[in-house]
């Protein structure tokens, strides 16, 4: 049985150098706007202040965004289905009359429904590292 050897560049890595590069990278993020996704599908957008060994992150001037609930989507769909009947007035050149045509979204197989995310300003916030799913740097 063949023994698997690690890549040569991995064995010569200096841990102190990696720590130094990590600190430099985190230092470059201070004051930048981060978008942090959490395990409960919320999104926090704020200014990066600090972090710790447990991957907790502190953001300042933070806004929290939540995806709409199923009830909100259903309510918006009900409103959209009652208001999407369109009446269009067109001139018929052969008879010189105006013809009204009515179309409804219920006859279409798919409809696009736009529901806004809810948001609120929360200021300074600590995000536990165990709940962070993804971090994006804006700008």
For the structure shown, list the relevant keywords.
SH3 type barrels, 7 strands, two-stranded antiparallel ribbon, five-stranded antiparallel beta sheet, elongated, 139 residues, alpha+beta
Task: Provide an overview of this structure.
- This is Like-Sm ribonucleoprotein (LSM)-related domain protein.
- Residues 24-137 form the Sm domain.
- Pfam families: LSM.
- Keywords: Ribonucleoprotein.
- This protein is α+β, with helices and mostly antiparallel strands.
- The chain has a domain at 32-70 and 111-139: SH3 type barrels (Roll).
- Helices cover 24% and strands 40% of the residues.
- The protein has a 5-stranded antiparallel beta sheet with strand order 6-3-2-1-7, with no helix packed on it. Strands 4-5 form a two-stranded antiparallel sheet.
- β1 (33-38) and β2 form a beta hairpin.
- The protein starts with 7 loop residues before the first helix and ends with a strand.
Give a quick rundown of the structure.
With 139 residues, this protein is an alpha+beta fold.
Helix-strand layout with pairing:
Blueprint: H1 8-11, H2 15-29, E1 33-38, E2 43-51, E3 57-66, H3 70-83, E4 86-92, E5 97-103, E6 118-127, E7 132-137
Antiparallel strand pairs: 1-2, 1-7, 2-3, 3-6, 4-5
């Amino acid at each position: 049985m063949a023994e698997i050897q690690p890549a040569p560049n991995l064995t010569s890595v200096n841990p102190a150098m990696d720590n130094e590069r990590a600190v430099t990278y985190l230092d470059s993020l201070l004051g930048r706007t981060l978008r942090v996704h959490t395990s409960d599908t919320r999104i926090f957008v704020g200014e990066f202040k600090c972090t710790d060994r447990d991957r907790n992150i502190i953001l300042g001037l933070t806004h929290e965004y939540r995806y709409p609930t199923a009830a909100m989507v259903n309510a918006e769909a009900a409103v959209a289905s009652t208001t999407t009947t369109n009446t269009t007035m067109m001139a018929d050149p052969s008879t010189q009359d105006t013809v009204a045509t009515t179309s409804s979204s219920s006859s279409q197989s798919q409809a696009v429904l736009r529901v806004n995310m809810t948001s609120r300003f929360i200021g300074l916030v600590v995000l536990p590292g165990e709940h962070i799913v993804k971090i994006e740097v804006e700008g």
